[in-house]
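User: Second chain of the day. Same drill as before.
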Amino acid sequence: MPEDIVGVHGKLRVFFITEEDPLYVIRFFDTFFGEYPCDAFKICGIAVDRAFHEPIAKTLVRLRRFYGIWSTFRLGLRFLGARLHRRSIKSLAASSGVHLIATPSVNGPDFIRRVRGLAPAVIVSVAAPEIFKSELLRVPRLGCINIHSGRLPTYRGMMPTFWQMLRGEQTVTITAHLMAERLDAGDVLATQPFAVAQHDSLDRVIKGTKCEGARLLIRVLNDLRAGYVSRAPLDMTQANYFSFPTLADVVKFHQLGHRLL
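Assistant: Same format as last time:
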């Protein structure tokens, strides 16, 4: 293994950029921090950004329109429970000995300078709320990797798990792909299916795909460390892009027998 890939101690240096979500995204890190091979990877840091990059009032309106009043209330209770138990990605990272880097923007020059100083071989995006610009994409030697819970390029964009279930897919496809300046358009490194039941809940499927996404990333990082990389370019002529679901989409989702929570 070349030293410029794994570093002087033989470990692949990995930096994470994610959002603070104590309900779903944290499941990814529960699994990753609990299962990754410490002798093979060095987690050199993590940036935990705020979700959606918008005021909390706007986020609450978005959630109420999607989930409805009762389910939004239930999610709020879960969120408060996580806060009371001090359960967060930041606290999980700190307890795992991972260095936290705060920033108002991952594309800011100061943040990029600090991350470059950590010399990551790979930067991994897990539900990162900002689009990575070209300067950040060029920082890691092996590139930036995104974990996307949808088959690409068919399910580019927001809420891919919801859209796959709404369109009757029997499996949700978790995709690990290299990041490019165009959103969800980089080469695919690996995929992992996650089965959807005939009458399922978005809650269950999102939680499951977060855990399996962490295991998929471990597999991809092991391949990168070994020098074996399989890259499949996307045929962007087949690309779709999905935005946040409307109330009409949610009604159709329920008509299929699925639940949100």
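The chain has a mean pLDDT of 92.

User: Great, on to the next one.
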